[in-house]
Amino acid sequence: MASTEKKKKSDPARTKVRPAGFPTREQVMDFIATSDQPAGKREIAKAFGLKGQEKIALKALLKDMADEGLIDIGPARAFHKMGGVPKVTVLRIVDVDDTTLIATPERWEAEGQPAPRLRIVERGKRGALTIGDRILARTEEAGRGWVAHPMKKLAKASEELLGVVEEADGGKLWLRPVDKRIRRDTPISDPGTAKKGDLVLAEPVGRPPRITARVTDILGDPFAPRSFSLIAIHKHGIPHVFSERVEEEAVAASRLPLHEEKREDLRHLPIVAIDPVDARDHDDAVWAAPDDDPANEGGYKAIVAIADVSYYVRPGSALDREARKRGNSVYFPDLVVPMLPHQLSSDMCSLRAGEDRAALACHFVLDAAGKMKSWRFSRAVIRVAAVLAYEDAQAAIDGTRDEPLLETALKPLWACWALLRKARDKREPLALDLPERRVVLDEYGKIVSVAVRERLDAHMLIEDYMVAANVAAAKALEAKKAPVMYRVHEPPSRDKLVALKDYLATFDIEFALGQVVKPATFNRLIARVGEAEEKPQIMEQILRTQTQAYYAPANQGHFGLALGSYAHFTSPIRRYADLLVHRALVGAYGLELPAPKGDIPDRSSLSGEDMENMARVGEMISQHERRAMEAERETIDRYVAAFLAAHVGDLVEARITGVQSFGFFATVEGLGGDGLVPVSTLGDERFFFDEAGRALEGVESGDRYTIGQRLQLRLAEADPINGALRFELPDALPQRPSFKKDRVRPGSVRRGRPANIRHMGAKRGKHRR
Questions:
Q1: What is the mean pLDDT of residues 213-220?
Q2: In sequence order, which ranges of 480-513 are alpha helices (DSSP H)?
Q3: Do the Cβ atoms of 356 and 369 come closer than 8 Å?
Q4: What does each C-alpha distance from 723 to 65, 221, 441, 559, 643 come to in angstroms?
Q5: What is the mean pLDDT of residues 224-239?
Q6: Nearest Cα residue to 489 out of 578, 593, 563
Q7: Is the dihedral of CA 544, 550, 553, 559 positive or negative?
Q8: Nearest to 549 by CA among 489, 598, 615
Q9: From start to end of 687-748, where are the E strands?
Q10: Which terminus of the chain has fewer CB atoms gathered within 10 Å of its CB, N or C?
Q11: Please, are residues 461 and 472 in contact by the beta-carbon 8 Å criterion?
């Protein structure tokens, strides 16, 4: 009896007593509006007990009601009130309002009515959703709007397609994807005004296996200057246009008075900014001098001055909401997508030489052993004495370049850094010195070179000063029991350590799982390997063992830096986490300045909303950081492929970066950009995949290909559109037809491509390798 009652309660058709006979329009509307599941024709017929000819009449009634604008049909042929939203429907997350995600229906066909914006109500573990995700959600009206309760995160298969229009024999148009993970081209059913060679956004039409593309936006020539970055911006949904309101607010904020009389005046100090030669903004500057306290003989005092972004970007402002939505600036070789508008990011919040600037200064004192004895924070006004490139500062210290500030600024900085190095060496942070690629373009956007950035003492000096200031910020906030947005890097998981142990065993290297694993554990392991041939492979595997860092208000320490408390404080122009740390310091240490006039919010310290949503914001900006890293990496891969396209057929020095059963991936030494060597091109023998050793081994020859191994390969293909490379062994036999290099279709004409870029297409219906 109880189970029968439960079944009745859960059946929406029984929640109300339906009148006998054929339903009226009002009764149908009432059922659709109150049903807690999609209400299609079948559900309506069942609710009112309709059979036979009555079902045919119901179909006609529903059509009339739709024609009259009373109801509309949504996904799964379910009806809903016109202007409303289906009870259960597919939504796409399109925006974020403060910390609330905003979604719109994936399908919206109500003429003359804008698609509703639904507030996402997340329960349980949050942070799994972000802009661009698709969800199945239960919806309901709340107040004057709609809310959605996520039921399931859906695959991104029906997202917009980004690709290049190509023309096959007979004039048929196809969309070649820019994502190298997508192996098939898509026939274009509706090109609009798009022409062969255009970079376009398209939406999928139809159902598998007969999916076609309908072009929705034409982005231009994929080989025009900045197009590689444009591809990444659209692919990852990176916000890149500021609204008029945000721009206006930035202009108003940039005009705020500095209040020099209420700031600590540091303009007399020879503070310098040391940055990359191609830096687009300067948000940190440093100064150091011997400590004049006799009790601290051999010690130094230092200042890390950071642009006072919290003074200009205040909680609750449109500027703040936009910065939170972006999370960070995104740096491409040809442009930057800033977190803040130009008026702030590259003007008032950029520490230019010879100009008065507002700063939040971290003052700290080191003893002769490099231990930090004390710290304090102040709102200051500074005047940077010079902005120096890393290379120029290093050359001045090395004596190969004249620099007026050598004695007064640079030598004291290097002397103080010697103490910071003592402290760093004592705590033994993880010593994985990974190369960073730099793409150099000329004024026309043409690739001049792709090279690994040189690693100088000047780079490490600035890094160590920034680490010291970040540690001081975290500890200063902890001392006041104030909220902290920590930079968290957790120790490796046991599963990854087990995988590392198994991998090292293939080199007869022991790795004890019972030990307390610290960064020094890995450093000693690398030292044991020395300069052996397998060192690159082992370092690669140690890197894969590490976890990904993230932002959170709960402190879990920073494993890689061997620090118990760490927060990002030094880059508030380009990271929202740093801006929150600045606000927390302003509030905790009473550094608020007079309230501005006009519509700009009064306070520059953390708001109640900031404090309440720290965890949610940490999740969001961590996601945005990963999005930016992927977009930046993919764009550099495209530039590398474009650069290498002129060298197709040449032999290159490469290093294996990944091994799978179907082949191995390799990267060109000094350039980067992964490419595949298919196992089918390694010879006629069968190759065994050694999963533990991450290697492919020939059953007959014993030839072995493993991660980190250096070898010479022939560059077979380079595709700038998706950044894909393909290699083959120098003595590889001619490949099967599916691996033919020359895939340009007869009659196709290259559009706007630089002379050094080789076109690569694919035969229809064939997978790309």
A1: 86
A2: 494-505
A3: no
A4: 52, 16, 17, 33, 10
A5: 85
A6: 563
A7: positive
A8: 489
A9: 687-690, 695-698, 704-706, 710-719, 724-728
A10: N
A11: no
Examine the pLDDT at 702 and tell me if it is beyond 70. Answer: yes
Determine the Cα–Cα distance for residues 409 and 74; give it in Å rounded to an integer: 68
Task: Please say whether the beta carbons of 686 and 697 come within 8 A.
Answer: no
Whether cis (ω within 30° of 0) applies to the bond prior to 209 is yes
Separation between Cα atoms, residue 249 and residue 318, nearest integer Å: 7
User: What is the Cα–Cα distance from 377 to 30, expressed in whole angstroms?
Assistant: 63
Separation between Cα atoms, residue 328 and residue 588, nearest integer Å: 24
Contact 297, 412 (CB under 8 A): no
Which of the two residues, 446 and 695, has the higher pLDDT score?
695
Report yes or no: 749 and 740 within 8 Å, Cβ to Cβ: no
Separation CA 205–CA 189 (nearest Å): 8
Q: Per-residue b/e over 542-552, b at no fewer than 16 CB within 10 Å?
A: beebbeebbbb
**How do beta strands 118-120 and 145-154 pair?**
parallel
Task: Label residue 236 by pLDDT band (50, 70, 90).
Answer: confident
Burial class (CB in 10 A: 0-12, 13-18, 19+), 123: exposed
What amino acid is encoded at 499 in this protein? A
Which position has the token pair 């059922």?
31
pLDDT recorded at residue 112: 55
**Structure-block tokens of residue 302:** 């230092």
What are 530-540's pLDDT values in tens digits?
877 777 778 87
Residue 723 is encoded by which pair of tokens?
């950044």
Query: What's the rounded Cα separation, in Å, for the pair 99 and 75?
Result: 28
- Write down the residue that tokens 């993970």 correspond to: 181
> Would you state the structure tokens that stand for residue 320, as one six-digit string?
């703040």
Higher confidence at residue 231 or residue 429? 429
For residue range 299-352, list pLDDT tens digits in order: 999 999 999 999 999 999 999 999 999 999 999 988 899 999 999 999 999 999
Q: Distance of alpha carbon 402 from its chain centroid, rounded?
A: 40
Better-scored residue on pLDDT, 765 or 684: 684
- φ/ψ bin of 424: left (φ > 0), alpha (ψ from -120 to 50), beta (otherwise): alpha
Task: Kindly give the pairing relationship between strand 372-383 and strand 264-265.
Answer: parallel
**């060679």: which residue's tokens?**
197
Q: pLDDT digit string (tens) for 534-585?
A: 777 788 788 889 999 999 999 999 999 999 999 999 999 999 999 999 999 9
Token pair for 106: 């994936």
